[in-house]
Amino acid sequence: MELRQLEYFVAVVEEANFTRAAERVHVAQPGVSAQIRRLERELGQELLDRSGRTVRPTAAGEAVLPHARAALAAVAAARGAVDELAGLVRGHVAVGMVTAGPTGTVADMLAGFHAEHPGVGISLAEDTSERLLAALREGRIDVALVGLAGPPPPGVSVQVLVDEPFVAAAPPGDPLAAHDAVTLQALCARELIALPRGTGLRTALDTACARAGLTPRVAFEASDPNVLARLSARGLGVAVLPTTVAAAHATELRSVTITRPGLRGRIALAWRSDGPASSAAAALIGHARLTLPGLAPAQTTDARSMSETSAPDSSSRRNS
């Protein structure tokens, strides 16, 4: 059994395609296929189901996958330990960012890291928070900027950068705009405009509704909160937005406090609790924690400190 066979196997599983996996590992596709076939013959089991349009791991492949990832991570850690001993920081780091996240802030952070460590390759990908956290836990990325509706999942530590309430936003002519606050129940009676499932904002909304026995009527979805605001401004529904986004569209939209319960969301820097896989990843995490603006740099995986919804707001003068 060779490390390259494990590397190719993991790449095919994650890409669900031999061609994309070959491009990822910079090897011709027949070479990838041949090495995986050799691994299967050695183990005496087929690891991949090649019968469908996408390649999927078999039951044997699912059993082998975590061990293959662990072996590759151990090798990367060994190389990182040697580099650290020699005072070197090199290799590659993979960064994830929630779609429509603070692109400029992340770009500045990565530019600063590149200036300090020019020998480290950097890749950046956008996705939903749910998929980014899964990739982080599986070791496919080293650090991520994600949206959180509650505590981080097991095995993930975070540094909260932004913590703000969500509001309902509607144009001035909408009946909702005449109110200072709206209950979650009343909000669910309206057609809503929200981020897609898997995002921190949508998770906060869906979780709060489920706890209250409500079903939100989401008529429009978009991955950019600013698009949600523009759709609402054109009378297509009530947008559920972070406070800062709603404030940026104050000339077009009226922000209404959501109560019983209120909703909060967080943007956080996230990394694996058991530590980075390489010295390059460790350097990136340290650099990001020092340079990204935000709240106090405290790690937490405590659900009590990161509740999914805030306490009901009883201070508003008029409720819808």
From TrEMBL:
A UniProt-annotated Pfam family: HTH_1
Signal peptide per UniProt: none
HTH lysR-type domain segment(s): 1-58
InterPro entries assigned: LysR_HTH_N, LysR_subst-bd, WH-like_DNA-bd_sf, WH_DNA-bd_sf
Keyword terms of this UniProt record: Activator, DNA-binding, Transcription, Transcription regulation
Region of interest called Disordered, as start-end residue ranges on this chain: 297-320
Feature: compositional bias, Polar residues: 298-320
Family assignment from sequence similarity: Belongs to the LysR transcriptional regulatory family.
Name used for this protein in its record: LysR family transcriptional regulator
Taxonomic source organism: Rhodococcus daqingensis
